[in-house]
Design brief:
The chain is mainly α. Helix 1 (2-16) runs antiparallel to helix 6 (98-129). It is 79% helix and 0% strand.
Length: 200
């Protein structure tokens, strides 16, 4: 998931830097921006509602771990305002795109810093304190929040992944889902041009 989010941040930065067209118009019409927001909300919502509360209960009385969870919570809290600022900049018809460029820079830097912080410190706490049942519930919550968007989400998640990682992600899924991914979902996603790069 973090790899996918970083990949999309790269697309967002590249789109904001386009000079062949108004990048705001591209972001307004391209499905990539909405997909990024939707899937980021799914991931962080499942963490906030399932994963972090369970771990917080497990680390009661451990100040270092609680400080880390507080930091994760604070970092999540600034993401939605950042996305809202992006939406406002995208919707603007003011001359120039300087505001968009600045907001994209803050979004990319802030979310990358959060992902790195979570990987460097947060995942160790998850490994230490999240029970198999908590991880199962986190996965269930994630899937339920994706819901009918799964035919787009799964190819989005796995775009650019190597064959081994793709196989590892698909292996637990039912055979009909794996077949649909290979035969229908991945080809349809590949044809989507979600960042309108064909027009560049």
């Amino acid at each position: 998931m973090h790899d996918a989010l970083r990949r999309e941040l790269g697309h967002i930065a590249a789109t904001a830097a386009r000079t062949d067209t108004d990048p705001r118009a591209v972001l307004r019409s391209a499905p990539g921006w909405q997909m990024f927001k939707d899937y980021l909300h799914v991931h962080h919502g499942a963490e906030d509602d399932i994963l972090w509360p369970a771990i917080r209960a497990a680390v009661a009385g451990k100040p270092d771990e609680n400080d880390l969870l507080d930091a994760m919570e604070a970092e999540h809290a600034v993401i939605d305002p950042g996305l809202a600022a992006m939406d406002a900049a995208i919707a603007s018809d003011e001359p120039g795109t300087g505001a968009l460029t600045a907001i994209v820079g803050r979004l990319v830097a802030g979310l990358n810093a959060h992902l790195t912080h979570e990987e460097d410190q947060g995942l160790a706490v998850v490994d230490a304190y999240a029970t198999p049942e908590v991880l199962r519930l986190f996965g269930v919550e994630h899937r339920e929040r994706i819901g009918p968007a799964m035919p787009f989400y799964l190819p989005w998640l796995l775009e650019g992944a190597d064959a081994a990682d793709t196989e590892a992600a698909l292996r637990p899924l039912p055979a009909p889902v794996r077949g649909a991914y290979h035969d229908e979902w991945a080809p349809a996603f590949a044809a989507l041009d979600r960042w309108r790069t064909a027009a560049a």
